[in-house]
């Protein structure tokens, strides 16, 4: 993957290979927390930050600890531990530095630990043999793409709740899945610009 630069991978991770709408990773919190724009913005920001930071940390752990000591088979456990520890550290720092921000994000931070999109980013970075900057670009782009998708979903759901009559059989998860499928089709329009394989 030496041929793709930081910004190309970043753009591709946001639009053409959106981790949520092409790989369907992180769907639980996407469907559960996308009823209001304010909530979606808080969770999307937190996921973007954690995804970017843990992609860097996991790349360093993989390249300088797991590969040299022939411990690559432990990557799943190590990546999960790094993600959980980083989320706990961020939660403690935010609680000490800014209590209003902690109160606003506090309920979303534990959800980030179990967001499979974040683990997926670390695993994709290993499978695709990314360099440090490529891994950072992919982690940041995947987080921003996830945030873009949940914000768009929240906007659509909020608008539908205010102005539309949804048939009783489609209320709740039914209409959410239809919207998610339609959004995935819309993002397919970006295919062919850049591909990450």
Tell me the layout of helices and strands.
Elements lengths: L5 H9 L12 H6 L4 H30 L8 H23 L1 H7 L3 H5 L2 H12 L4 H32 L9 H15 L10
Helix pairs in contact: 1-8, 3-4, 3-7, 3-8, 4-5, 4-7, 7-8, 8-9
Keywords:
197 residues, mainly alpha, 9 helices, globular
Written description of the protein model:
There is one protein chain. The protein is mainly α. Helices cover 71% and strands 0% of the residues. The chain is built from nine helices and no strands. The radius of gyration is 17 Å and the shape is globular. The N and C termini lie close together (9 Å). The mean pLDDT is 87.
- What is the number of helical segments per DSSP (H or I, 4+ residues)? 9
Helix/strand order, N-terminal first: HHHHHHHHH
Helical content (DSSP H or I, runs of 4+): over 70%
Gap from first CA to last CA: 9 Å
- By secondary-structure content and strand pairing, the structural class works out as mainly alpha
In percent terms, what proportion of residues is strand? under 5%
Number of strands: 0
Largest sheet: none
On the 0 to 100 scale, the average pLDDT is: 87
Rg over CA atoms:
17 Å
Shape: globular
Low-confidence runs of at least 5 consecutive residues: none
Short description:
The protein has 197 residues and is mainly alpha-helical.
